[in-house]
Model the fold of this input.
Amino acid sequence: MSEAIVDVRGLTVEFPGPPPVRAVGGVDLTLVPGEVLALLGESGSGKSVTLRALMRLLPKRAAIGGTIRVDARDVRQMGAAELSAYRGSTIAMIFQEPGLAFDPVYSVGDQIAEAVVRHEGAAWAQGRRRALELFERVRIPSAARRLDSYPHEMSGGMRQRAMIALALSCRPKVLLADEPTTALDATVQIQILLLLRELQRELGLAVIFVTHDIGVATEIADRIAVMYAGRIVETGSCRAVIRACAHPYTQGLLASRAGQAFERGGRLQAIPGAPPDLSRLMPGCAFAPRCAKVRDACRSGLPAELPVGPGHVARCVLLQKEPVASLSSV
Amino acid sequence: MSAILEASGAAPERDRGGPAQPLLSVTGLVKHFGGRRDWSGKRRGMVRAVDGVDLEIFKGETLGIVGESGCGKSTTARLVMQIIRPDRGEILFDGEAVGSPALGLQDYRRETQMVFQDSYASLNPRLTVEHTIAFGPWVHGEGRRAAVARAHDLLARVGLAPERFAARYPHELSGGQRQRVNIARALALQPRLLILDEAVSALDKSVEAQVLNLLLDLKAEFGLTYMFISHDLNVVRFMSDRVMVMYLGKAVEVGPSDVILKDPRHPYTTALLASMPSMDPDNRTEEAPLFGDPPNPIDPPPGCRFHTRCKFAAPVCSAREPGLGADLGDDLVHRVACHMADPSSGHPGAVAAMERP
Done:
């Protein structure tokens, strides 16, 4: 196995109160070059905050703990100059709403050229040439003409393609994608997913892909990490998590998909309750209040990461080998 | 408390036309927005949001409407609800024309209610949950006390304990709870038709399943009819008896949901189904079924509106617009607006398509 390019240990992010909100409560992540990891979770599970912490995009008031190492550098210790060199050329990000991520008053081609000039000290003409190459690469029709378009003149799918072109303009090693297909129509979403997969393979990018949609994660990921209430509750290869998930939350997510109900008029197996309030987290497993298989041990302490299969771990006391009786007496 | 609803909400005597008459029947619905007249007086730059839609919803069924953004599904819902006035077209509710002396708008709106996508924006932030729900019945002439009692009863039925939730404001609720309040409010006037416009789209998946189950329960309990709009084919498949697929302001395929989602006949429906992410890690999608974005509904392409993205497009497709053709189904009505389904259209693929088993 090659050296990890992203190595996150014990990441915590807390936003000051009142009441303080612990958005991320101890996340460990590793990513090797050329690997696609999907962070799967519902709103408020901390997946986007984790991503922003990697990019150092969180507001100053957020209290961050743990270590974040990307490309063998400590991201938390970076100064302003180092940080601006790091963003773009080592790590780049694409967002859910490209209409908001672009500057509305400059043409898209100029924004890409600016990034290239700023990061690589290239001449303006060279930046524009790179922008054109990238536009052709992400298959924007009539690329040369489209370089002079403003963001509002493009359709949603084309804006997302342009966003990907911008993110790739300085040849990053790691691409962070924050729900990049959520705002798109179904027929456009699949095009963007296929494009990302193709670019990732050709450029050997490491990708962290945040999504709430299991189907999207299945289409794109090598590994899936399922997040709940600021922690990763299960990690494993895409195949293992989809076929043999071990955590009750993952099982519930898979069972509650409307596509699972083959019989119309039948009922969906919904997970009861709602995601917890992150400002009032109880000790123990955060999923315990909604879990059908809850026992006393779940509420007493945070479950350890336990192996399910090769490279497949989950945080659930049910995976412990000891007999169940001894668990409830803890 | 539930006696209040049962006493006043008895459905049978409100049913005028009998079970064979559609609850809602819409013909030739048209809504265009904006546009300017050029020197010759022709309107240009006009958004043809809904451009001649016919639909029927039978009593007790769920009609699902699917399509991508800009296909006119939400505009259709708003036109049916009379939130915006149609340019043309007729809406019959249980045999009576909406807005006619026999069925005035106020009476119609008691029979038809709507739930929107954004659960927060559709609630008044300054009203408590119980007042939000009680407001409709009160405006329609019910006593204050009775209206609040009904609100409490409805809250219980949508799964929110009235003693905990009645006095709360919308910001004190989660998204799923707010959508339950919206559903309770829609039911407060005991409507017969409920229009659900992307009502579960903004919810988290685990909460979405709860609300879908609730909608099924309420439908059975109150004998409701649903018009269920969503972009998510899985959800539509789960909820609907019949499905209408829309593309750029037109219906392209209508039929029983089992048939349409298993054996689609319109190339657009086929592409939409193939665009759903695969749930099998060993069998991922390898080729995008369509290229490009849906075209703009401003000045849509001539002929069949899908021909610009359709891989079966023939000259006839850009020349002539296909209508929703004759029934293809064996026993249930399945209609499709595609030249390939019409042997007399002159489309080279028409014969091959007809010979399918």
Summary: Chain B has 13 helices and 13 strands. Residues 3-35+47-240 of chain B form a domain with the Rossmann fold fold (CATH 3.40.50.300). The radius of gyration of chain B is 22 Å. Chain B touches chain A through 50 residues (CB under 8 Å).
